[in-house]
Amino acid sequence: MRFLVFVFSGLLFSLQGVRSQDTEIELLRSRLIEDALVNKGFVPRVGHYIIPDFDAAARYLAEQNFDGSWSSVDYLDTDNSWDPLSALDKILVMSVAYNQSSDPLYHNEKLLNGIERALTYWYQVDPTCVNWYKNDIAKQMYQGPIAILMQDHIREDLLYKIIEDQTPAPRMTGSNRTLVSTSVFYRGVLEKNPARIKSGISGVMDPVRISDDEGIQVDYSFHQHGPFLYNGSYGSNFLRETAWIASMVEGTSYAFSEDHIRILRDYFLQGTRWMIWKELFDYNARGRQVGRPSGFGLNADLQIPILEYLMAADPAFKSGYLEVQERIKNSRPQVVQGLKHFWRSDYSVSYRQDFYTTLRMCSERTIGMETDVNYENLLGRYLPYGLTYIYRRGDEYEEIFPVWNWARLPGVTSPDTVPVEKGKYTQPSRFVGGVTDGKFGLSAMDLQLNSTKGKKVWFWFEEGFVALGAGIKSENEHTLFTGINQSNLRGEVKVNGQTLAEGLAKLESPHWVWHDSTAYFFPESSENLFVEAKEKTGNLKWIFGLSEDTIYRKEVFSLWFDHGVMPVDDKYVYAVFPGISSDESKDLAKELPVKVLVNNESLQVIEHIPTERIGLAFHEVTDYPISKKFTLSVSDPCLVLIDKKSRSLTVSDPTTELDEVTISFERSNGKKHSVTMNLPDDANASQSKSIELNVKL
Questions:
Q1: Counting Cβ atoms within 10 Å, is residue 383 exposed (0-12), middle (13-18) or buried (19+)?
Q2: Which of 22, 44, 341, 641 lies at a C-alpha separation of 20 to 30 Å from 92?
Q3: Alpha carbons 338 and 361: distance in angstroms, whole number
Q4: Using H for helix, E for strand and C for coil, what is the string for 192-215?
């Protein structure tokens, strides 16, 4: 009898467990339906291809052929733009209308028949794209919501086919794994299969970790397609899908662990948030997106639905996410301030109250850029070699890319010709990195762009930055340029206070140039400086091979150095002060708060006079008289930032190869004070390290 009681109790417990699982699955299904109908949660996914028109269901039904097709859709199209997705868009819009109680077509039999006929025709034709992504990821972005909405309404054979189209198990890496696993999750809910649901959620959670490979890096940058910075594209997709699914399963047995939620929180607040300025997502963090129309806009609004899901998944930090969201909506800067160098991605961000500047570099440790991927970014070969964006409003470069001179990119030193090559590109340089105390700092790059070489440094301070170039030489037979800026033209351009006429001009020993609330100062005499202010035209097809022959016309401001053909030992210096008026520029030109102390191939040194901070880029082992009392020397090439007022020393190793570095301060009498600093290693190699000094400089 006791045995029978145990058996009965066990069966009861098992049945209760099954009922509990069924209840949770039904809860997940109801959340997915509500998300589709109320939040339109699928729009950030499918919106990359087509923005759904939710008022068009009746029109789509009226335009439908008897066989379920639409004459406007090329079902046999196979190229990357893949027109058949427009058929799935129509079916999805019709499915929303059928389930939306406020819609005139709610539970309309003719609409249901149209949806079934459209799905029947789709599976008869079975459209296929040459791009695997459209077949294995994009198509499922539409089908999952369609199936969830229509599960209780369409014929079982059609539902079965949609379910079979969903991915059975997680695969791939990074953002792609997240998107594929979302399809697995949909399939598990549709099948009422707890194991498959768990598998899909696990596939989404797997990349939610600090990785040495693709995915979230220890500095909260995001890598995809190798060590390639992609927070603004794949990383945004990853966060969107992860936060979305975390919000769907919150409070259930499938919920994310606190560790996973914390990583998502830190990834956004300590990483991605630094890449958002007002309504803009930094172009430098979007990879090849600037080479296609979807990447021309400001795009920070794409983070708004992500933040909604983060609030639902991480309610304890709702106020923080809400503040970020409100600042995007109201076009205000985020609360982060100072200088941050993402050492895993060769990327620096200077985030100030009135302006925002970012720098993209590359090294042998990172991939600089992808070009000609799906015919995107055809002219992007030089993008990662020091590209410096200068923002105040955020729209300074909006839609400028089709008319850009891609051989004169802001901050980049490159030949006057851009090779159109397919692949992933970087440079063999080891000496690429940044040093920062959180407010001030230095970024440095040993340029080795094929036959062009040079030492490039950016010194960041609260009012702006100074850019230095030394030892610039090239064996390329084309003219060599260093771009300073190339932005949308807004208002007048002034040179030494005089308004510049429209067109191209070579500037004779200019002291300063002003345009659009930004001043450019030239502390050293320059005979090779050019400025241009005029309308430029460009064909979209130049940078995006799948586009129509669309002509863009933009008024463009451009400022650059011309180093001539095959220079041997050229150099440049310029200082940028964003957010000031022309009159303020005139006053500032009399006495800049920064001074270039050394600029050669061995050493580059800049001082910010008011704060007594000095940045030093030691490309070689050498010394420098840091004050009247001391000469500073280093044991190895490195980057050094000294705050003489607070007696602090900050060091980083741009090569990532040093275990330690010794900094020595020698008096004129020969007495030496040395500091040996153990440096971060492994994934943290090249991170800045600070100590207090025991000597008064």
A1: buried
A2: 22
A3: 19
A4: CCHHHHHHHHHHHHCCCCCCCCCE
Q: For residue 474, report the phi and psi dihedrals to the nearest 5 degrees.
A: -155, 140
Place of tokens 């068009």: 56
Q: Which two tokens stand for residue 433?
A: 């990195």
**Extended beta strands in 384-425, E state:** 387-391, 413-415, 423-425
For the chain, the first-to-last Cα distance in angstroms comes to 90
Cα(111)–Cα(94) distance, integer angstroms: 7
Would you state the structure tokens that stand for residue 479, as one six-digit string? 């003219």
Q: What secondary structure letter does DSSP report for 540?
A: G
The candidate with the shortest Cα–Cα distance to 326, out of 262, 276, 378, is 276
Two tokens, residue 196 = 């498959």
Quote the CA–CA distance of 360 and 282 in Å, as a whole number: 11
Each residue's pLDDT tens digit, 292-308: 888 999 999 999 999 99
pTM value? 0.90
Task: For residues 241 and 246, give the distance between their C-alpha atoms in angstroms, rounded to a whole number.
Answer: 8
Which residues does 184 contact at the CB level (< 8 Å), separation at least 6?
166, 167, 168, 169, 170, 196, 199, 200, 203
Pairing of strands 464-474, 452-461: antiparallel
Strand order in the sheet with 498-499: 432-436, 441-449, 452-461, 464-474, 570-578, 518-521, 512-515, 493-495, 498-499
- 163, 186 in Cβ contact below 8 A? no
DSSP codes joined into one string, 256-297? PPHHHHHHHHHIIIIIGGGGEETTEE-GGGSGGGGGSGGGSS
Amino acid at 634: V
SS3 622: coil
Q: In the chain, how long is the greatest CA-to-CA distance?
A: 105
Chunk the chain into consecutive blocks of 10 residues (it has 697) and report each block's average pLDDT, rounded to whole numbers: 43 50 93 96 90 97 97 95 96 98 97 98 97 95 97 97 96 87 96 96 93 94 96 93 94 95 97 98 96 91 95 95 97 97 98 97 97 92 98 97 97 96 95 98 96 97 98 95 98 94 87 96 88 95 87 97 95 97 95 97 98 98 94 97 95 97 92 94 96 88
Residues 6 or more apart whose CB falls under 8 angstroms from that of 98 comprise: 57, 105, 106, 107, 108, 111, 112, 115, 149, 150, 153
Closest CA to 250 of 209, 308, 170, 328: 308
**Residue 567 identity:** P
Q: Are 189 and 29 in contact (CB under 8 A)?
A: yes
Cα dihedral 313, 316, 319, 321 sign: negative
Whole-number Å distance between alpha carbons of 409 and 296 = 16
Which is nearest to 574 in space by CA: 650, 466, 496, 487? 466
Residue type, 460: W
User: What's the length of the chain?
Assistant: 697
Taking alpha carbons only, the member of 392, 401, 384 closest to residue 297 is: 401
